[in-house]
Amino acid sequence: MDLNLSFAHPVYLDTLLDYQKVLEQRNKFLKDYREKKESNWEGQSGFKVQLVQLGTEIIKRRKNFLEQIFPQAQKYYQEISAGMVNNSQHISIIDHMLTKEKLKLEYKPTFFARRPEEMVNNSQPISIIDHMLTIEQNYLLAFEEAENREKSWGVTLIGPHRDDIELKINSYDLREFGSQGQARTAMLALKLAAMDYLATLREQTPILLLDEVFADLDEKRTEYLSNLLEKKGQVFIATSKEKELGGKVLEGKKFHIKENQVLES
Fold first, then answer.
1. Looking at the predicted structure, is the pLDDT value of residue 129 above 50?
2. Angle, in degrees to the nearest 10, between helices 45-82 and 180-202
3. Of 202, 227, 254, which residue is a domain's last?
4. Alpha helix stretches (DSSP H) within 146-204
5. Are residues 239 and 211 in the same domain?
6. Using CA atoms, how far apart are residues 169 and 15, in angstroms rounded to an integer?
7. pLDDT tens-digit readout, 179-225
8. In contact, 98 and 178? CB cutoff 8 Å
């Protein structure tokens, strides 16, 4: 996500680099404080203020990016899962069930863990704490609550460097309950949606890099995905099992890596 955002908005990369620089400085202070090389805890407050300012901007931009790409990602997920080649009307019962799978996504800042009951009750595809408090206020409260742990551990525990993205199929956590095929399809759907976002924003078609993208897909879904990728401009697909490639992908140029050399076949 950070890579896509940096391509889309260079100012985001500047903010991210500034954040990482301040984070390193604060972590050094926390380490020194834990090792008794620093005695004035207030010495880190300036770093904390900068982290909140920069981190809030990062969180807002990440949230906006996910909101922009998520509807298209959900569409890609359902289409690839069901393998709807050419919008065929002849869909099996299993395929029909797969079209009912709904991909959900939650961006979860580290201060989200402060209120687990809100995670349970939240039904929105993308959520972030913004009820009675602003992001900045939640951020500062989380820093206050983490103060003793940060003193003990000597590291910054709050901020976008520790944030998480949770993917769900319907109400089930994909990492805990999803199959490899579901996880692979979800990540592919997000990557394709991000590519569409960049192509629209920059008016240029990005080069798409994929690794073992056809693994865990049956013949029908492989055929559908092959036809889809054909429309995505220049695509590089890495695989250790050439037989998994299908459709018009097989008509493209092939390269093999052998003894540290790249050979065209």
1. no
2. 110
3. 202
4. 147-153, 174-177, 180-202
5. yes
6. 32
7. 887 888 899 999 999 999 999 998 888 888 888 887 777 777 777 88
8. no
Residue 244 pLDDT class (50, 70, 90 cuts): low
Residues 197 and 212 in one domain: no
- 118 backbone dihedrals φ, ψ, rounded to 5°: -75, -30
Of 12 and 132, more confident = 12
Domain hosting 194: range is 2-202
Looking at residue 205, the DSSP 8-state letter turns out to be P
Q: Structure tokens of 40?
A: 């004035």
CB-CB neighbours of 88 under 10 Å: 12
Same domain, 84 and 14: yes
Residue with tokens 């985001």: 12
Which two three-digit tokens encode residue 77? 């997920």
First CA to last CA distance, the chain: 34
Distance CA(21)–CA(8), nearest Å, equals 22
* Whether residues 45 and 70 fall in one domain: yes
Tell me, what CATH number does 15's domain have? 1.20.1050.90
- Residues 260, 194, single domain; the answer is no
Structure tokens at 54: 């920069």
DSSP H/E element including 262:
strand 261-264
Structural domain total, the chain: 2
